[in-house]
Amino acid sequence: MGEMIKVGMADLKVCKAPDNLTTIGLGSCIGIALYDPVTKVTGLAHIMLPDSTSIRNNSNIAKFADTGIKKLLDDMLKMGASKSRIRAKIAGGAKMFDIGSSTMNVGDRNAAASRAMLKQLGIPLIAEDCGKNFGRTVELYSANGDFLIKAVGKTPYKI
């Protein structure tokens, strides 16, 4: 069993089996898991906002869906992953506060931006666990691509 590598908020990491990746506290944020089943090169990004172009101080590329997913893909390709084999799973995007206004629902916008960027890059999204009103901790296993979702008061489940 390899090491469990922590991915912080607005951060991204890549690894290879037997190492695995985890990120805690996905509220409105999205955990983006990318996986190459042949090389077992695995990547996880914890993005906070949908779009870097609408923010002036956007030097942290891992913070945004558009730039974070591209960087995650690039890092995986450098480690030997093949773009044609990479598959994606996403989790998070919760509506943590009922504020009434859908324009303020960052979770939905993060999920939509993540889906759009994956589509633009030609990476199939094969599973997702987004929305609802609870935070998630996720663990991504590089041996088989399992994406384990943990939430307070719920039985952990894989997508």
From TrEMBL:
It is an enzyme of class 3 (hydrolase). GO terms for biological process: chemotaxis. Keywords: Chemotaxis, Hydrolase. The keyword Hydrolase applies. The keyword Hydrolase applies. One of its GO terms (molecular function) is protein-glutamine glutaminase activity. It comes from the Bacteria. Its EC number is 3.5.1.44. InterPro entries: CheD-like_sf, Chemorcpt_Glu_NH3ase_CheD, Cytotoxic_necrot_fac-like_cat. It catalyses: L-glutaminyl-[protein] + H2O = L-glutamyl-[protein] + NH4(+). It holds the Pfam family CheD. Probably deamidates glutamine residues to glutamate on methyl-accepting chemotaxis receptors (MCPs), playing an important role in chemotaxis. Belongs to the CheD family. This is Probable chemoreceptor glutamine deamidase CheD. The gene is cheD.
